[in-house]
Queue: 3 jobs
Job 1
Amino acid sequence: MAASEHTVLQFGTSSSTLTAKIHPLVIFNICDCYVRRPDQAERVIGTLLGSILPDGTVDIRNSYAVPHSESADQVALDIEYHHNMLVSHQKVNPKEVIVGWYSTGLGVTGGSALIHEFYSREVPNPIHLTVDTGFNNGEGTIKAYVSANLSLGDRQLAAQFQEVPLDLRMVEAERVGFDILKTTMVDKLPNDLEGMEASMERLLALIDDVYKYVDNVVEGHVAPDNSIGRFISETVSSLPKLSPPAFDKLVNDSLQDNLLLLYLSSITRTQLSLAEKLNTAAQIL
Amino acid sequence: MANTNTAPMAMARSFLQVAATEEVASPLRVVQIEGLVILKIIKHCKEFSPALVTGQLLGLDVGSVLELTNCFPFPIREEDEENEAEGANYQLDMMKCLREVNVDNNTVGWYQSTLLGSFQTVELIETFMNYQENIRRCVCIIYDPSRSNQGVLALKALKLSDSFMELYRSNNFTGEKLREKNLSWVDIFEEIPIKVSNSALISAFMTELEADTPVTQCDYDRLQLSSNPFLERNMEFLIECMDDLSMEQQKFQFYYRSLSRQQSQQQAWLQKRRAENAARKAAGEEPLPEEDPANPIFKPVPEPSRLDSFLITNQMANYCNQINGVAGQNFSRLHLMKALHEN
């Protein structure tokens, strides 16, 4: 809790600069909690953990669900649970502090204001993330909001939820591979060489695409696009300029290094299995 | 008619039989991991890399499949009595909390990060034995953040083989026992194939969120040309292991030498005794016993445990595999680069 004091959200009049970045784990977690929600519950809500990056972006890195009960005009949040879980999470990673809360469903609902008020007491200016697990408008909408108070003089009138841009690019998920995360069942993890093969195939396909495009432009089938041309020339010029003998030498040297390593490791392996055979033979004697 | 009547009966019986046989223990064939667990493990391991971290795996044990549906990280442990109790409390708290949101609250093992695959240690075996005492079937997931930087999902599910566990319990790693069990270094760890499953909801979201660019971060990582630091570290570790192994072998040589010295001493003593006995017999006296337990040369020389050398051998085999894998990747990369350059 002490750590949260110095993560002041830079917010006030300049709400337009605030952005949020979400890690795929958070979405996975929310979906999992939604799948496991209690029978009578309509939605799940929970706490978002993360940090504020130096440029003011809210980095949402972790989350946990908080049990709650909801009736027509009331929301009861299990605050004790929330605090227990927070303490546990901070034992592991003290750098992650509360940055806001999430709820499933499309957009902001009436009860949200109450919960938002609670989280505003935990951390200044929390983020409210909504994940539409019901696919209400045909797509999984994920949105982030911050709330601004509308007040007249000293009197609070209402809380207004403003949408903030959300960065959904998932470098971490890409690292693991969408092939694995996208389907419901994968029988086998790709090993070194299979992954390599897939990547190379993709690269080849891309190069083919570029070839086709360039050929089409040259022959006049497609209208030339300067920006694409610039990208292509940049890509080509990013190859280091080396004389063919120098390049050959470089490649061959690396090849030989690798071959040597391969040889060494193979010889070690042979040695190991030989030693094992000898060992058992010696024991039998 | 008779057939249709007996079929359900037979089914019921066979179901019972199946249940009964499963009670005995069906071997663990597949570990089925949720994408959520993979991401959680990766996040935890990566954030603390290069420090090594561990965490608990929660899930269900269904027949020959072990489903991992959730996990939680352990705080970094400091060697302290007080902290140990605190760690246990933390575990209990976490389990309690997770149960409240309907997470499978059933420990099925643990995960840990590793550096270049150097995980085959006595500690791992000890932890495994500890877990095994409480849970009939448990598994250890190993994740290697250093390898993942090259675009490989370096996840491994391991368990100790049954015959090894039996041997470890009796703590008897002499050559004779190992021969009896026909156990070699390859048989210590069993790697279990990993399946990945995701809920339909997550699958839908991921399809929605997948960037439409044809190139992913994973491809960039894989096509990265510089793997030399990785290979160098690997070689260093391999060489260290070799040193360790040669130390172990020296121990064994020493043992065999002292054993053979002892045997020759015993032989000499026995001959002397026999000659003496023959003389006594000729003189009509009672022969002396042919064994003398009090004599120090009959004290058995303790045989060094082979566990360490087995583990080191395993480790070396692992490094060799890694080097082979990365070198193989390098070949493809280099040839690719050559082809590109020629174009």
Job 2
Amino acid sequence: MTNISLEPIEIVRGQPYPGAPDNWKRFFTFSTDHKVIGIQYIVTSFIFFLVGGLFAMIMRGELITPEADLVDRTVYNALFTMHGSVMLFFWTFPVLVGLGNYLVPLMIGARDMAFPRLNAVSFWMIPIAGILMMSSFLIPGGPSQSGWWAYPPVSLQNPTNNLINGQVLWILSVAISGVSSIMGAVNFVTTIFKMRAPGMTWFRTPAFVWSVLAAQLIQLYGLPSLTGGAIMLLLDLTAGTSFFTPERGGNPIVYQHFFWFYSHPAVYVMVLPVFGIFSEVLPVHARKPLFGYRVIAVSSVIITVISSAVWVHHMFASATPPWMRMFFMVTTMLVAVPSGIKVFGWVATIWGGKMRFTTPMLFALGGISNWVFAGITGIFLGSVPIDLHVHNTYFVVGHFHYVLYGAIVMGIYAGIYHWFPKMTGRMYYEGLGKLHFVLTYVGTALIFLPMHPLGLMGMPRRVASYDPEFAFWNVVASIGGFLLGLSTLPFILNMVSAWVRGEKVGNNPWRAYGLEWLTSSPPSVENYEELPLVISGPYGYGRSEPLVSNVPNPDLTEFPESLTPQKAS
Amino acid sequence: MTAERAISQDTEAAVRQHQEHDEAGNSKFGFIVFLLSESVIFLSFFVGYTIFKTTTTDWYPEGVTGLETREPLINTIVLISSSFVIYVAERYLHDKSFGAFGSFC
């Protein structure tokens, strides 16, 4: 009887199926491994982020002078429409789905997502839908010019009278990305409900997983409303129905209801995973357990519930009856309660902690500070009198960019830096990371802070030319915009060079406490040799109990002793 | 095929079997979640139609006087019976009786 060496199996286990490429080429295959798909999501959406940022910088270049001289007004309309659509549908949603894809199965001790092939399909729809939307630049009439919300009757104008026009391509592209999001949401919800490791009860599940679950539940109940509204808009545009066409008896306001019933909760879809990232990053770098972990976890789900009844605050100026304004003002302000609970928990987490100001920690702290500011201007906008005053001005633009860039993009950066050693096994360059943080934080303040005084002075949004009295703040904002464009360069340099030749730092460089740090970096295909048996809750900093009762990967030795049971005792 | 690869495929099969243990349960759960989500699309269609129908006095396009029912009724019957036929064909395919499957498909 021959002894066959078991060594080659170790190598083959690094691949999803025998013969699959085990190097960088696997990121260009139709892989079903959740970690490959996660990185595919992150990189693809980052490319769209750069495209959307380019649109933004052309707009800021246009707004340096009061006259519309750099680009034509119709081009400007197309630019802000495409900027908003690309940034939301092809950057923020997909990148967070990517981070969730990578981290959720690792954090709950699963070997993969519940439906790996469905996962791959929902990823590959993103580049297809993105290219479809970009292709509208090449057709006669150019892209949609009706803004990312595509309100009728503007979106129903169709000046070229072609069947294939920018608006139709926009609707189709949004519908495809919606299908992708729904499939992703089904996948996440099933994974989190059914595939948690033995012993991982709900209150042993990390806050990031809670927040991803809360966000994906919003996708499930909200997104169909946008899809339904978009299909009716498409029928109005192509088949001659009149759901939203006022001259044939339709009601354009109904579209606004359909749109915002999804698109306001969509903001929570984007911000909740970022809250989860904050909740994961802060305890690791402050060496303290997450303060009020259970309350922070449950407050995510409370936001899911409240967010289903806030959407009319976008329509205070859309002939909304007074009782409706009052009701939705109250519900909007209610969102501040769970968000405030979270901020309180984060501040209490770092209070008295042993802080390490690494790049992810800096981004998390910066993101939280921006979130507090954005939340306060959000309260302003939620109150009916102020909202009517600043409706459709730059105040609104400043507010939601503080949410989306100041809090969400900063949080995404924090997450990418924090889990970069897990994804690649190598450490990013700290100096470049800090440079990136400074540029991003200063740029964010420079570009989005001036928008608030501009809005209070009365500058309307979505204009290519403006009164000369607004010139000063617009120049400041444009400088900030170019600074933000510049800030992506150290990030790209950092990520690419660190992935190629960064310092190898082992499996748990942060000495973090969590299931994802119990496997190798980068994790092997099935994540764990045997499923971990969880015996205590997350964030056990300063506690002596181990996280698991078995050793999920027996051939890996370099873990902190507090994570796994010690053999001697 | 080399011996290593054969062994690796055996290991792989064992791992997959362990995983597929609960796959049927996952599929059922996921499909129910998907159906709940899809029902919201139809809810939004019904809401849109109801609002349109109740607030618009004369919503017929020009030259149309009433709602057609005959052709849509025939279409609906064809649609629903086709799903029944496909279901029967799928049952025959499941039992590997290909003749009956062919007659229904």
Job 3
Amino acid sequence: MSNYTVKIKVNGKVIDKEIESRWLLSDFLRDKLGLTGTHVGCEHGVCGACTVLLNGEPVRSCLMLAVQADGLEVETVESLAEEDGTFHPIQQAFANNHALQCGFCTPGFLMSMKNFIETHPVLPTDEEIREAISGNLCRCTGYSNIIKAVKEAYALKC
Amino acid sequence: MKQFVGQNVKRKEDYRLLTGSGRFVADIRIENMVEAAILRSPYAHARIKNIDLSEAKHYKGVLDVIVAADLKGNVKPFTEFVEFTFPPQLEADIKPTIKKNPEPMLAEDKVTFVGQAVAIVLAEDRYVAEDALALIKVDYEPLPVVTDPYETIKEDALVIHPELGNNIQSHFEVKVGDIDHAFRQANHILKTRIKTPRVSGNPLETRGVIAEYQERNQQLEVWSSTQVPFMVRSYLSKLVGLVEGNIRVVAPDVGGGFGPKCAVYPEEIIIPYLAMKYKRPVKWIEDRLEHMQSTRHSRDQVHDVEVAFRNDGTIIGLKDQFLLDNGAHNSFALCCAYNSAAHLRGMYHIPNYEITGRIVLTNKTPNVPYRGAGRPEAVYVMDRIIYMVADKLNLDPVEVSMRNFVRPEQMPYETGIFYRDGANMVLENGDYVKSLQQAMKIAGYEEFRQHQEEARKNNKYIGIGFSSYIEGTGIGPFEGAAVKVDTTGHILVGVGSSPHGQSHETTLSQICADVFGVNPEQVSVRAGDTSLLPYGVGTFASRGAVTAGSAVHGASKQLKEKFLLIAGQMLGVSINDLEMYGGKVSLKNSPSKFVTLQEIAQAAKPGPRCKVPIGIEPGASATYYFVPPTVTFSSGFHVAVVEVDKETGFVGILRYIVVHDCGRVINPKIVDGQIQGGVAQGIGGALYEEIIYDKNGQLVTGTYMDYLIPTAMEVPEVEMGHQEYLSPHNPMGIKGVGEGGAISPPAAIANAVCDAMRPLKIEINSLPISPNKLRSLIEEAESAESVLN
Amino acid sequence: MKPPKFSYLRPNSLLEALNMLAEYGDDAKIMSGGQSLIPLLNMRLSTPGYIIDIGRVEELKGIREKEDAIVIGGMTRHVDVEKSALVQEKCPLLTEGIRWVGHNQIRSRGTIGGSIAHADPSAELPCMLTALRGEIVIVSSEEEMTLSPEEFFLSYLLTSLEPNQLIKEIRFPKIKKGSGYAFEEVARRHGDFALVEVAAVLELDYDGTIADAKIALGGANSVPFIPEATEEFLIGKLPDDSIIKEAATLQLDELDPEGDIHGSKEYRRYLSGVLLERALYKAVERAREGVIA
């Protein structure tokens, strides 16, 4: 079948849509749902800009077909802030620490870190944070402010 | 009164970028839009004998397929980028030969590098467009290929563009003092070859263009991921033959630039043309494979350098002949090559200097200025030389460096040559001795040396290395700003520069806010849009803060003066009795009497209620173009502390220190961010990144699996020290900071690695320092030593 | 970089998957996590007519203990192995080595069967499986069989898997009490494919001599390499400096790594010796510490 009807819960809302089975999840989110906060940087699974959460876990949406997400739950950067616009602690920490410059890679970092912080409740070492973000490339910041932001997010969370 | 310049004001850009509501080119969707995909040459050099489009054109969902012939008569070919040509006095001084060879829009009868655009498919979406690419049949006749800069200058080398006669596209010489005399006077002469490889700036957002043409008003709207929207507009107008005023080019949120998005690409001309031709919006988003092949590369210089010096380490003469391997086309005149020549002596007083630069052509992707633009290459040469001289004389490199610095008492220091902008190149201020001392103090140099000895005894190889740079920043010709206060009292600033991560909205609002005495929240800055101002230049060459900052400062001051005049009229007093702060103009001696910016703005409106003094145009706006007299010289020192795993050849960076002078700091956090990010790219160039072609001109590093961009595991936190010598060349004393971080890491790290391996003598004169390369150097040095013993 | 057209099939059971394979095998590609396949599709280097997504085949998922082995279903993800307490306890080599596989976003989709079937000689799982002398269970609609790594890995990206077969499960032998293990790897950047890697398990006797040695080198040949002569050399010896150093370079001449821009053939061969030495030291140290209870 080259077309497929999928039912995906995206940012809490169930989406029912017919889609060509070759469409990447990244393109589906961006082009079919208008969720352009998920960025596409390399389309071969290295840069991490397209990272979204699939059933709560970070995945590269350029390395997934949209049909593979059928029946599952996807979270994108658009879901982070509260409805009134209040930042999620990780967003707040990024803003406080100048952890972004051009901002293109940022959504990928935020989604990776959301999962990391949730699954690592105890404040990690710098080295552990570095490893946790090593699957996300940033060409602007040189990472050190991102590491500071992750640490601050732990403080803000409490 | 609270000043915002100098404060860590939080970024205005962040909210949208953190919530996914930013708008990058690829995020834009327009009704009825088609998507383009580009067929690119798989050959480095080949004749195109035939292109069969029949199958591709008939593929379901395809609108059309375009080749070079379709552009004939409609789109003119590129000319040289006049923005990069030199002023006459400089041309007269260095007497360059420059042959014109701009890139073709689409390859016509032959291709000269892998990745060159050959055909464009327009289709209902990118998936379908890529399907159709596979159906285009191009009959290529492969031609011999030249990829080596030394091969390409040989008499019998194949000539890539026969009309140029040979593959030497440009040539120039710079001479200061009496080089022969210096070499006769020297106690020592050292000669070496130092190479900086080809790299790619690789912003995380690739290039992309969307264009929409509206017939009802002949308006062409173009969104491009560019650093220079005004330049794109200018070439679109010239090459497609359009009224410039009917074109609006917008650089929306741009995901990094670093140089490769500076200047115009064929796609930025063709895509808008196709939107006009087919009367449908057209979108082209470059993918990463295309980006690696066809977004211009950079660096790629080889220097054959000779240095004459005295027993005490004083360098008295420097001779250099270098090649810049430009790839197949050069539209940038002498830009990077001349930057290298002008900056090579850096902060050293070397009275006798002779350098010859040649830009040569090979079957590779064309070259572009990338963060540092010729300076990292020059600094790598100079600071390797400092270390080699020190080695030769058994002196501490710090001592050799100190001995050769331009001293504060020599400032302003005439370098004896012209800068790229045609002005005399003068280092205006700074104290290099103090700056290096500060860097070494942070590094704990003395203690490190003791620690290093101890570590060596335990077979632990740690080393320290430094590098210095000066950089002409804030180049002209100008930058513009328009400031206006709307009838709600809100200040709007439009600038001609075009940010892509530099935080213009924040820093420029700080400058404007200080002039008006308001909070930056009351100021909105817009950039990256040709509809904001009649003229603009763009963001590159560490020029944003210097030129756009000065323009905003100038425009704000003009408007403030006008507002004081209007307020005087409103309050019936002389402007000398007034002061402006807190969004109000009040009487100095009676602050309760005031008018607000909003009231003044309303009083500036033309009409019967207008309070603008007679003889002055009504309106609450001012436009100012800042024309810098010349560049301003930032400077700095980088110190790297590394550990070498001698067995594997892997290098780890233990500490990295930067002490720098960028004049007046507008926002410390943002300045530090620029340095940290620049260093990360410099570390990439030092240890990981290299664009490699095989002998057939095939790109070997065409993906992110092969082209290694540093991750968080490879980049340490930079420890910083600041010096603040205000520039005399602009009203706020700003010097540029964007590139500095990227200039010195290769030299500092290479020097540190050499230092770590001592007493083993290795010379790292090419990059990146891959573990394989370092192991080979160690093995060579060890076997040379065992021969000696 | 968009995938070409294909038909997408998503079986819900192993039987259904095998039937689809039997029908479309020659023109079909199995997709488990897709972390190697989708880049190939995006670059259009692979253009299968059918993609059989086994992501919903629950029988192929899970980690269990069976006799002397940890049995891992082909469709089990890296992250599940990484976090498994059972694996950590019984086969900690796997826990250590699996962290070298890509980055966490890859490990949350990539599968054990996928890694094994992809057969990249510098990938971590084939190397560890070979060192442990594990087994690969493959099935088709007709038969099920168990292969050793040597039977399964044929060459660079080439396995003995037939178009109608898929990997059902992989058996990783438990590490015996009194043993030490080590996984050593170097890559240009963290998360990159290894330049070279070594997986080693050493069992020490009560007298401190080596009772058993199981070693594999990855990235050093077109398939994971077992240095048999080195293993034999080590058995019965007291692993002191001179023995370890000698063992580490004993078979370097037999290695035939592919050279590329990240490391020449010679460098990789040399590096194999360095890493083997480090792995042996670490394994011995751990054995002496009694890390496996």
